[in-house]
């Protein structure tokens, strides 16, 4: 504005009288404001009806649960489900000393080993042994190892008879026994000398022996058992002392570095064939 214009303006003059607007539910502010200020459109009412009416504007971000609170809630839900199902956690098992054995006799775990042999016979679908075994087993009796590998990596090894073939700890080489407890990173076995040993899986190679023929009794035969004075059947002494080494068997090498999983985790895990590196 020029200096002459500033001289002509009277700053003390009364302001132009404005209309007092009364707003109500019948005449809301938003439609009137939009229609009065939208001057570029030929139909302000249509612009309001199509772009403004019924729309909601968020003035603040909606409240969300934090990741920690969500994780805590899921953990609480899982714990309640486990308690309802009667599942006992590893910490509770350790506090109750469930896995601490008072007696570690090798003969006491031979029935468990016999159950594992029957379990392997059913899992692998092994055929019955011929009536008379020759001095040398025929190669045609050997089952397909391609189908056995996929089943063995998911099998339960509690009761299996394993031997340490190689290890970075030379004191462990040659140890063998029945597996009584398998964890993610170790095998707990009972040896023939009635000693319990904890063998780590990493940096070790184990030999797993599987029966060549089925150890299950035929359906038309009764299992060899003797009846005690109390009337309960007992397994014969011959069946108790027989292990997988005493019968025709197949040997597999287990690489501990690729076997560091719990028994329950291996059952639901998909293993991919790959080359392994020896120690």
Under CATH, the topology of the domain at 105-129 and 142-218 and 225-267 can be stated as: SH3 type barrels
What is the CATH first-level class name of the domain at 105-129 and 142-218 and 225-267?
A: Mainly Beta
Kindly report the oligomeric state of this protein: single chain
Radius of gyration over all CA atoms, rounded: 40 Å
Structural class, from helix and strand content? Answer: alpha+beta
What's the number of extended β-strand segments?
Answer: 8
Uncertain regions: pLDDT < 50 for 5+ in a row?
A: 220-238
Protein name: Ribonuclease P protein subunit
Main location: nucleus
GO cellular component, one term: nucleus
Organism: Steccherinum ochraceum
Could you provide a short overview of the structure?
The protein is α+β, with helices and mostly antiparallel strands and 279 residues long. It has nine helices and eight strands. About 7% of the residues have low confidence.
Q: Overview of this structure, please?
A:
- It comes from Steccherinum ochraceum.
- It is found in: Nucleus.
- GO terms for molecular function: endonuclease activity; hydrolase activity; ribonuclease P RNA binding.
- Keywords: Cytoplasm, Endonuclease, Hydrolase, Nuclease, Nucleus, tRNA processing.
- Belongs to the eukaryotic/archaeal RNase P protein component 1 family.
- The protein has helices at 3-8, 29-37, 44-51, 67-85, 90-95, 110-124, 145-152, 237-241, 263-267, and strands spanning 161-167, 176-182, 186-190, 196-200, 204-211, 225-227, 233-235, 249-255.
- The chain is α+β, with helices and mostly antiparallel strands.
- It has a domain at 105-129 and 142-218 and 225-267: SH3 type barrels (Roll), CATH 2.30.30.
- A 6-stranded antiparallel β-sheet has the order 4-3-2-1-5-8, covered by helices on one side. Strands 6-7 form a two-stranded antiparallel sheet.
- α2 packs across α3 (44-51).
- The longest helix is centred in the N-terminal third of the chain and has 19 residues, at 67-85.
- The radius of gyration is 40 Å and the shape is elongated.
- It starts with a helix and ends in a 12-residue tail after the last helix.
- Residues 220-238 have low confidence and may be disordered.
